[in-house]
Write a structure and sequence with these properties.
37% of the residues lie in helices and 29% in strands. By secondary structure, the protein is an alpha+beta fold.
C-alpha cells in the first residue's frame, strides 16, 4: 500500500467559537485605564492566539501507511499508531479536545481502551484506506 496523506478539514464553527471565547475573555480583562498600550497588548495577544489556531488548523495531517497511522498537529501533537492496533473507526461529533479542528469527525479506536478523534477532509475515503491497510478494522459510518 502506498502512503497517503490527508489534510484536516477546517471547521468554521470551531474557529468562530474559539474566536468568540477569546474575545470575551480578553474584553473582560481589558484595562481601559492603560490607553493605547492596553489596546495594543490586547490586539497582540488576540492576534497571537488566532495565528496559533490558524497554524494548528493548516498543519494538521493524518498519514496512512501499510504499518501505521501518523497523526501530526504542529506544534503540539505527534502520534504514531500501529495499524494492527486499530480495531474500529466510527463517525462521531464528539466535542472532546483532539487534533481535529472541525466538528465533522471520526474516532479511531486502538489498543484495549484508547481512542483519538480526528477530522480528515475526506473521511469516508480515509476510512476505506485504513480498512485496506488493516482488513480487520470495523467501520461504523452512521
Amino acid at each position: 500500500m502506498e502512503t497517503k496523506v490527508y489534510k484536516s478539514k477546517f471547521g468554521w464553527a470551531v474557529f468562530l467559537f474559539m474566536t468568540a471565547l477569546f474575545t470575551v475573555i480578553f474584553w473582560m480583562n481589558f484595562d481601559y485605564e492603560e490607553g493605547p498600550w492596553g489596546a495594543f497588548s490586547l490586539v497582540l495577544v488576540f492576534g497571537g492566539i488566532l495565528g496559533l489556531f490558524s497554524i494548528i488548523s493548516v498543519s494538521t495531517r493524518y498519514t496512512i501507511s501499510a504499518t501505521s497511522l501518523h497523526i501530526r498537529c504542529l506544534p503540539f501533537y505527534n502520534k504514531i499508531i500501529e495499524m494492527t492496533a486499530i480495531t474500529k473507526v466510527a463517525v462521531t461529533r464528539n466535542l472532546i479536545s483532539s487534533p481535529a479542528p472541525s466538528l465533522d469527525r471520526i474516532e479511531v479506536y486502538f489498543g484495549k481502551y484508547d481512542s483519538i478523534v480526528i477530522s480528515p477532509k475526506d473521511k469516508l475515503q480515509f476510512m476505506e484506506d485504513l480498512k485496506k491497510a488493516n482488513p480487520s478494522i470495523h467501520l461504523v459510518t452512521s
